[in-house]
Design goal:
This protein is an all-beta fold. It has one domain: Porin, CATH 2.40.160. The chain has one helix and 20 strands. It has a 16-stranded antiparallel β-barrel with strand order 3-5-6-7-8-9-10-11-12-13-14-15-16-18-19-20. The chain has a two-stranded antiparallel ribbon with strand order 1-2. A hairpin with a 6-residue loop joins β7 and β8. It is globular, with a radius of gyration of 22 Å. The N and C termini lie close together (10 Å).
Length: 403
Protein backbone atom coordinates (compact mmCIF):
# COMPACT_ATOMS: atom_id res chain seq x y z
CA UNK A 1 0.00 0.00 0.00
CA UNK A 2 2.83 2.40 0.84
CA UNK A 3 4.77 1.98 -2.40
CA UNK A 4 3.46 2.06 -5.92
CA UNK A 5 5.14 1.66 -9.29
CA UNK A 6 4.63 4.67 -11.54
CA UNK A 7 6.94 5.97 -14.25
CA UNK A 8 8.98 2.81 -13.83
CA UNK A 9 10.33 3.63 -10.38
CA UNK A 10 9.32 2.49 -6.91
CA UNK A 11 8.27 5.70 -5.20
CA UNK A 12 6.15 6.48 -2.18
CA UNK A 13 2.89 7.50 -3.80
CA UNK A 14 -0.76 6.90 -3.15
CA UNK A 15 -3.51 7.93 -5.55
CA UNK A 16 -6.12 9.51 -3.31
CA UNK A 17 -8.38 10.99 -5.97
CA UNK A 18 -5.47 13.02 -7.35
CA UNK A 19 -6.58 14.84 -10.46
CA UNK A 20 -4.79 12.87 -13.17
CA UNK A 21 -3.57 9.38 -14.00
CA UNK A 22 -0.22 7.67 -14.44
CA UNK A 23 1.67 8.55 -17.59
CA UNK A 24 3.31 5.92 -19.78
CA UNK A 25 6.13 4.10 -18.01
CA UNK A 26 9.52 3.24 -19.48
CA UNK A 27 9.38 0.13 -21.59
CA UNK A 28 5.82 0.68 -22.78
CA UNK A 29 5.01 1.29 -26.46
CA UNK A 30 4.60 5.03 -25.87
CA UNK A 31 7.46 5.52 -23.43
CA UNK A 32 9.42 7.78 -25.80
CA UNK A 33 6.38 9.79 -26.92
CA UNK A 34 5.71 12.87 -24.78
CA UNK A 35 2.87 12.47 -22.26
CA UNK A 36 0.91 15.72 -22.42
CA UNK A 37 -1.46 17.07 -19.79
CA UNK A 38 -3.32 20.31 -19.17
CA UNK A 39 -4.69 21.35 -15.79
CA UNK A 40 -7.40 24.02 -15.80
CA UNK A 41 -8.50 25.70 -12.59
CA UNK A 42 -10.41 28.72 -11.40
CA UNK A 43 -12.04 30.24 -8.34
CA UNK A 44 -14.78 32.56 -7.21
CA UNK A 45 -13.77 34.50 -4.11
CA UNK A 46 -15.69 36.54 -1.57
CA UNK A 47 -13.13 38.28 0.68
CA UNK A 48 -13.61 40.98 3.30
CA UNK A 49 -10.03 42.28 3.13
CA UNK A 50 -7.56 43.09 0.38
CA UNK A 51 -5.78 39.78 -0.31
CA UNK A 52 -2.53 41.63 -1.06
CA UNK A 53 -2.03 42.66 2.59
CA UNK A 54 0.72 40.46 4.12
CA UNK A 55 0.48 38.63 7.43
CA UNK A 56 1.44 40.79 10.39
CA UNK A 57 5.19 40.62 10.98
CA UNK A 58 6.00 38.69 7.78
CA UNK A 59 7.21 39.75 4.36
CA UNK A 60 5.19 37.40 2.16
CA UNK A 61 1.49 37.49 1.35
CA UNK A 62 -0.46 34.67 3.07
CA UNK A 63 -3.22 34.88 0.45
CA UNK A 64 -1.13 34.71 -2.70
CA UNK A 65 -3.33 33.79 -5.63
CA UNK A 66 -6.56 34.85 -3.92
CA UNK A 67 -8.70 37.30 -5.84
CA UNK A 68 -12.18 38.67 -5.36
CA UNK A 69 -14.99 37.67 -7.70
CA UNK A 70 -14.24 35.33 -10.65
CA UNK A 71 -10.64 34.35 -11.27
CA UNK A 72 -9.32 32.02 -13.95
CA UNK A 73 -6.44 30.89 -11.76
CA UNK A 74 -3.30 29.18 -12.98
CA UNK A 75 -3.30 26.65 -15.82
CA UNK A 76 -0.54 24.04 -16.00
CA UNK A 77 0.76 22.46 -19.19
CA UNK A 78 2.76 19.33 -18.44
CA UNK A 79 5.15 17.45 -20.73
CA UNK A 80 6.98 14.26 -19.72
CA UNK A 81 8.89 11.64 -21.69
CA UNK A 82 11.79 9.23 -21.57
CA UNK A 83 14.74 10.77 -23.40
CA UNK A 84 16.84 7.62 -23.69
CA UNK A 85 17.67 4.67 -21.39
CA UNK A 86 19.57 7.04 -19.08
CA UNK A 87 17.34 10.09 -18.71
CA UNK A 88 13.75 11.27 -18.42
CA UNK A 89 12.55 14.85 -18.93
CA UNK A 90 9.65 16.59 -17.20
CA UNK A 91 8.42 20.17 -17.61
CA UNK A 92 5.46 22.08 -16.18
CA UNK A 93 4.60 25.37 -17.84
CA UNK A 94 2.48 27.81 -15.87
CA UNK A 95 -0.03 29.95 -17.77
CA UNK A 96 -0.94 32.98 -15.66
CA UNK A 97 -4.55 34.16 -15.66
CA UNK A 98 -3.48 37.73 -16.47
CA UNK A 99 -1.33 36.55 -19.36
CA UNK A 100 2.27 35.51 -19.52
CA UNK A 101 4.08 32.20 -19.30
CA UNK A 102 6.54 30.96 -16.69
CA UNK A 103 8.41 27.73 -16.08
CA UNK A 104 7.22 26.08 -12.89
CA UNK A 105 9.33 22.93 -13.22
CA UNK A 106 11.73 21.81 -15.94
CA UNK A 107 14.20 19.11 -15.06
CA UNK A 108 16.04 16.03 -16.26
CA UNK A 109 15.85 12.94 -14.08
CA UNK A 110 18.13 9.91 -14.19
CA UNK A 111 16.57 6.48 -14.66
CA UNK A 112 19.52 4.09 -14.44
CA UNK A 113 21.84 5.10 -11.58
CA UNK A 114 20.74 2.08 -9.55
CA UNK A 115 21.36 1.42 -5.85
CA UNK A 116 18.35 3.58 -4.97
CA UNK A 117 19.95 6.77 -6.29
CA UNK A 118 18.02 9.37 -8.23
CA UNK A 119 19.41 12.64 -9.61
CA UNK A 120 17.44 15.64 -10.85
CA UNK A 121 18.87 18.79 -12.39
CA UNK A 122 17.06 21.84 -13.68
CA UNK A 123 14.24 23.79 -12.04
CA UNK A 124 12.70 21.72 -9.26
CA UNK A 125 10.42 21.97 -6.26
CA UNK A 126 12.55 21.34 -3.20
CA UNK A 127 12.14 18.04 -1.35
CA UNK A 128 11.90 19.75 2.04
CA UNK A 129 8.76 19.25 4.11
CA UNK A 130 5.69 17.35 2.96
CA UNK A 131 3.65 19.71 0.79
CA UNK A 132 6.43 21.53 -1.04
CA UNK A 133 6.85 19.06 -3.92
CA UNK A 134 3.10 18.87 -4.59
CA UNK A 135 1.61 20.87 -7.46
CA UNK A 136 -1.27 23.20 -6.61
CA UNK A 137 -3.93 21.06 -8.26
CA UNK A 138 -3.22 18.25 -5.75
CA UNK A 139 -3.58 20.41 -2.63
CA UNK A 140 -6.38 19.41 -0.26
CA UNK A 141 -7.35 23.06 0.18
CA UNK A 142 -7.54 25.99 -2.24
CA UNK A 143 -4.41 27.53 -0.73
CA UNK A 144 -1.25 26.52 1.06
CA UNK A 145 -0.95 26.71 4.86
CA UNK A 146 0.09 30.10 6.22
CA UNK A 147 3.57 28.90 7.11
CA UNK A 148 4.24 27.88 3.49
CA UNK A 149 2.88 31.17 2.19
CA UNK A 150 4.98 33.43 4.44
CA UNK A 151 8.22 31.40 4.50
CA UNK A 152 8.39 30.22 0.89
CA UNK A 153 5.86 32.28 -1.05
CA UNK A 154 3.74 29.08 -1.25
CA UNK A 155 6.55 26.81 -2.50
CA UNK A 156 10.33 26.73 -2.58
CA UNK A 157 11.63 26.11 -6.09
CA UNK A 158 15.12 26.64 -7.39
CA UNK A 159 17.39 26.10 -10.35
CA UNK A 160 19.87 23.48 -9.22
CA UNK A 161 20.43 19.79 -8.56
CA UNK A 162 18.86 17.25 -6.23
CA UNK A 163 20.15 13.83 -5.22
CA UNK A 164 17.93 11.31 -3.41
CA UNK A 165 18.71 7.88 -2.05
CA UNK A 166 15.97 5.31 -1.39
CA UNK A 167 17.16 2.64 1.05
CA UNK A 168 16.68 -1.03 0.02
CA UNK A 169 14.58 -1.78 3.11
CA UNK A 170 10.99 -2.82 3.78
CA UNK A 171 10.55 0.40 5.70
CA UNK A 172 10.52 3.53 3.54
CA UNK A 173 13.74 5.49 4.14
CA UNK A 174 14.71 8.35 1.84
CA UNK A 175 17.45 10.92 2.31
CA UNK A 176 18.46 13.70 -0.04
CA UNK A 177 20.21 16.97 -0.60
CA UNK A 178 20.05 19.92 -2.97
CA UNK A 179 22.24 22.75 -4.19
CA UNK A 180 20.61 25.70 -5.91
CA UNK A 181 21.10 29.21 -7.15
CA UNK A 182 19.30 30.74 -4.17
CA UNK A 183 17.58 33.50 -6.13
CA UNK A 184 14.06 32.96 -4.78
CA UNK A 185 12.71 34.08 -1.40
CA UNK A 186 14.12 33.88 1.25
CA UNK A 187 17.24 34.25 -0.88
CA UNK A 188 17.80 36.99 -3.43
CA UNK A 189 19.22 37.40 -6.92
CA UNK A 190 22.98 37.84 -6.76
CA UNK A 191 25.81 38.11 -9.26
CA UNK A 192 28.06 35.32 -8.03
CA UNK A 193 29.28 31.89 -9.13
CA UNK A 194 28.51 28.74 -7.17
CA UNK A 195 25.44 27.77 -5.22
CA UNK A 196 23.44 30.20 -3.12
CA UNK A 197 21.33 27.74 -1.14
CA UNK A 198 21.42 24.20 0.22
CA UNK A 199 18.80 21.75 1.45
CA UNK A 200 19.04 18.50 3.41
CA UNK A 201 16.05 16.26 4.10
CA UNK A 202 15.12 12.77 5.28
CA UNK A 203 11.79 10.93 5.10
CA UNK A 204 10.72 7.75 6.86
CA UNK A 205 7.50 5.75 6.59
CA UNK A 206 5.82 2.37 6.79
CA UNK A 207 2.55 0.48 6.72
CA UNK A 208 0.70 -0.59 9.86
CA UNK A 209 -1.20 -3.66 8.69
CA UNK A 210 -3.31 -3.16 5.58
CA UNK A 211 -5.33 -0.20 6.90
CA UNK A 212 -2.78 2.36 8.05
CA UNK A 213 0.39 4.03 6.78
CA UNK A 214 2.53 6.94 7.93
CA UNK A 215 5.41 9.14 6.87
CA UNK A 216 7.59 11.53 8.89
CA UNK A 217 10.35 13.87 7.83
CA UNK A 218 12.97 16.41 8.86
CA UNK A 219 14.49 19.11 6.68
CA UNK A 220 16.99 21.96 6.77
CA UNK A 221 17.29 24.89 4.35
CA UNK A 222 20.04 27.48 4.32
CA UNK A 223 20.62 30.48 2.06
CA UNK A 224 22.18 33.94 2.06
CA UNK A 225 20.30 37.06 1.03
CA UNK A 226 21.99 40.10 -0.47
CA UNK A 227 19.98 43.34 -0.61
CA UNK A 228 16.67 41.47 -0.40
CA UNK A 229 14.03 44.15 -0.74
CA UNK A 230 10.76 44.02 1.17
CA UNK A 231 8.06 46.48 2.11
CA UNK A 232 6.92 44.30 5.01
CA UNK A 233 9.94 43.53 7.16
CA UNK A 234 8.67 44.59 10.62
CA UNK A 235 8.71 48.39 10.43
CA UNK A 236 6.83 51.36 11.79
CA UNK A 237 5.54 52.26 8.34
CA UNK A 238 5.16 51.01 4.80
CA UNK A 239 8.66 51.60 3.53
CA UNK A 240 11.15 49.69 1.41
CA UNK A 241 13.70 47.82 3.52
CA UNK A 242 16.75 45.90 2.38
CA UNK A 243 18.08 42.85 4.24
CA UNK A 244 21.45 41.13 3.78
CA UNK A 245 22.38 38.13 5.85
CA UNK A 246 21.97 34.44 6.56
CA UNK A 247 18.66 32.60 6.57
CA UNK A 248 18.29 29.10 8.05
CA UNK A 249 15.05 27.11 8.31
CA UNK A 250 14.45 23.77 9.99
CA UNK A 251 11.27 21.73 9.62
CA UNK A 252 9.37 18.67 10.84
CA UNK A 253 6.50 16.97 9.01
CA UNK A 254 4.19 14.02 9.61
CA UNK A 255 1.27 12.37 7.79
CA UNK A 256 -0.90 9.40 8.79
CA UNK A 257 -3.52 7.68 6.62
CA UNK A 258 -6.20 5.18 7.50
CA UNK A 259 -8.74 3.32 5.41
CA UNK A 260 -11.09 0.52 6.52
CA UNK A 261 -9.91 -2.79 5.03
CA UNK A 262 -7.22 -0.88 3.11
CA UNK A 263 -9.71 0.28 0.47
CA UNK A 264 -8.67 3.91 -0.13
CA UNK A 265 -11.05 4.21 -3.06
CA UNK A 266 -14.10 3.97 -0.82
CA UNK A 267 -13.12 5.78 2.39
CA UNK A 268 -10.04 7.17 4.06
CA UNK A 269 -8.88 9.55 6.78
CA UNK A 270 -5.69 11.59 6.43
CA UNK A 271 -4.09 13.64 9.20
CA UNK A 272 -1.00 15.74 8.61
CA UNK A 273 0.99 18.55 10.14
CA UNK A 274 4.21 20.51 9.65
CA UNK A 275 6.32 22.88 11.70
CA UNK A 276 9.01 25.27 10.44
CA UNK A 277 11.32 27.65 12.27
CA UNK A 278 13.45 30.26 10.50
CA UNK A 279 16.30 32.30 11.93
CA UNK A 280 17.66 35.28 10.01
CA UNK A 281 20.57 37.45 11.05
CA UNK A 282 22.47 40.17 9.25
CA UNK A 283 22.02 43.87 8.51
CA UNK A 284 18.87 45.78 7.65
CA UNK A 285 18.71 49.07 5.80
CA UNK A 286 15.54 50.87 6.79
CA UNK A 287 13.85 52.88 4.03
CA UNK A 288 16.29 51.84 1.30
CA UNK A 289 14.29 53.82 -1.27
CA UNK A 290 14.38 57.04 0.79
CA UNK A 291 10.59 57.42 0.97
CA UNK A 292 10.28 58.23 4.66
CA UNK A 293 10.97 61.53 6.40
CA UNK A 294 12.52 59.51 9.26
CA UNK A 295 15.62 59.02 7.14
CA UNK A 296 17.63 56.00 6.03
CA UNK A 297 19.30 53.89 8.72
CA UNK A 298 21.33 50.67 8.64
CA UNK A 299 21.93 48.40 11.61
CA UNK A 300 22.10 44.81 12.79
CA UNK A 301 18.92 42.75 12.56
CA UNK A 302 18.08 39.22 13.69
CA UNK A 303 14.81 37.41 14.28
CA UNK A 304 13.52 33.87 14.78
CA UNK A 305 10.08 33.20 13.27
CA UNK A 306 8.04 30.02 13.14
CA UNK A 307 4.75 28.55 12.05
CA UNK A 308 2.79 25.33 11.95
CA UNK A 309 -0.42 23.80 10.75
CA UNK A 310 -2.44 20.67 11.37
CA UNK A 311 -5.16 19.41 9.06
CA UNK A 312 -7.37 16.41 8.47
CA UNK A 313 -9.22 15.27 5.35
CA UNK A 314 -11.94 12.60 5.42
CA UNK A 315 -13.28 10.94 2.27
CA UNK A 316 -16.67 9.52 3.27
CA UNK A 317 -17.78 8.30 -0.17
CA UNK A 318 -15.79 7.62 -3.37
CA UNK A 319 -16.80 11.10 -4.62
CA UNK A 320 -17.02 13.32 -1.55
CA UNK A 321 -14.41 14.63 0.91
CA UNK A 322 -14.32 17.18 3.71
CA UNK A 323 -11.43 18.70 5.61
CA UNK A 324 -10.45 21.02 8.45
CA UNK A 325 -7.18 22.95 8.88
CA UNK A 326 -5.76 25.23 11.56
CA UNK A 327 -2.72 27.49 10.97
CA UNK A 328 -0.69 29.58 13.37
CA UNK A 329 2.40 31.80 13.03
CA UNK A 330 4.84 33.41 15.44
CA UNK A 331 6.60 36.52 14.02
CA UNK A 332 9.13 36.46 16.86
CA UNK A 333 10.88 39.32 18.61
CA UNK A 334 13.55 41.05 16.53
CA UNK A 335 16.93 42.05 17.91
CA UNK A 336 17.83 45.46 16.50
CA UNK A 337 20.89 47.65 16.23
CA UNK A 338 20.68 51.02 17.98
CA UNK A 339 20.19 52.91 14.70
CA UNK A 340 17.01 50.92 13.93
CA UNK A 341 15.35 51.41 17.31
CA UNK A 342 12.06 53.21 16.87
CA UNK A 343 12.03 52.62 13.13
CA UNK A 344 11.63 48.84 12.98
CA UNK A 345 9.03 47.15 15.17
CA UNK A 346 10.72 44.48 17.28
CA UNK A 347 7.64 42.85 18.82
CA UNK A 348 4.10 42.82 17.39
CA UNK A 349 2.69 40.79 20.33
CA UNK A 350 0.34 39.14 17.83
CA UNK A 351 0.17 35.59 16.46
CA UNK A 352 -1.44 35.32 13.00
CA UNK A 353 -3.84 32.38 12.67
CA UNK A 354 -6.51 30.94 10.38
CA UNK A 355 -9.22 28.27 10.55
CA UNK A 356 -10.33 26.67 7.27
CA UNK A 357 -13.02 24.16 6.31
CA UNK A 358 -13.50 22.62 2.87
CA UNK A 359 -15.63 20.07 1.10
CA UNK A 360 -15.14 18.86 -2.47
CA UNK A 361 -16.88 16.67 -5.01
CA UNK A 362 -14.80 14.49 -7.35
CA UNK A 363 -16.81 13.23 -10.30
CA UNK A 364 -13.71 11.28 -11.33
CA UNK A 365 -9.96 11.43 -10.80
CA UNK A 366 -9.92 14.08 -13.56
CA UNK A 367 -12.26 16.70 -12.04
CA UNK A 368 -12.90 18.37 -8.70
CA UNK A 369 -15.26 21.08 -7.44
CA UNK A 370 -14.52 22.54 -4.01
CA UNK A 371 -16.16 24.89 -1.51
CA UNK A 372 -13.89 26.45 1.12
CA UNK A 373 -14.75 28.69 4.09
CA UNK A 374 -12.05 30.35 6.18
CA UNK A 375 -11.76 32.74 9.10
CA UNK A 376 -8.42 34.43 8.42
CA UNK A 377 -6.95 36.28 11.37
CA UNK A 378 -3.43 36.56 9.95
CA UNK A 379 -3.45 40.39 9.81
CA UNK A 380 -3.74 42.27 13.06
CA UNK A 381 -7.02 44.19 13.31
CA UNK A 382 -8.20 42.92 9.90
CA UNK A 383 -10.19 39.69 10.36
CA UNK A 384 -11.28 38.20 7.06
CA UNK A 385 -14.15 35.77 6.52
CA UNK A 386 -13.49 34.13 3.16
CA UNK A 387 -15.66 32.08 0.82
CA UNK A 388 -13.95 30.38 -2.12
CA UNK A 389 -15.37 28.10 -4.81
CA UNK A 390 -12.84 26.27 -6.96
CA UNK A 391 -12.83 23.94 -9.95
CA UNK A 392 -9.91 21.80 -11.15
CA UNK A 393 -9.97 19.61 -14.25
CA UNK A 394 -7.26 17.55 -15.90
CA UNK A 395 -6.90 16.58 -19.54
CA UNK A 396 -4.36 14.13 -20.90
CA UNK A 397 -1.90 11.80 -19.19
CA UNK A 398 -0.71 12.97 -15.80
CA UNK A 399 1.78 11.27 -13.50
CA UNK A 400 0.88 9.87 -10.10
CA UNK A 401 1.61 12.08 -7.12
CA UNK A 402 3.67 11.48 -4.03
CA UNK A 403 2.40 9.82 -0.88
Amino acid sequence: MFKKICSGTAVAVLMLHSVGACAASPGSDNAFNPALSLILSGTYGSLQQDPAIPATGFAMNPNSGHEQSFNLGESELGIAADIDPLFRGIATISLASAGGVSVENAFVQTSSLGNGLNLKFGRIFSGLGYLNEQHSHTWDFVDQPLVYAVLWGDQLKEDGIQLKWLAPTDMFIEVGGELGKGSNFPGAVRAKNGNGEGVLFAHFGDDIGIEQSWRAGVSLHQTHAVDRLSSSIPAAGIVSNSFSGDSQTGGLDFVWKYSPNGNFYERYLKVQGEYFQRKESGSLTYDAAGLSTAGTATGSYSVTQSGWYVQSVYQFTPNWRTGLRYDRLDPGIASLGVSLTGKVISDYAFNPSRLTWMTDYNASEFSRIRLQLAHDNSRQGLPDNQVLVQYIVSMGAHGAHQY
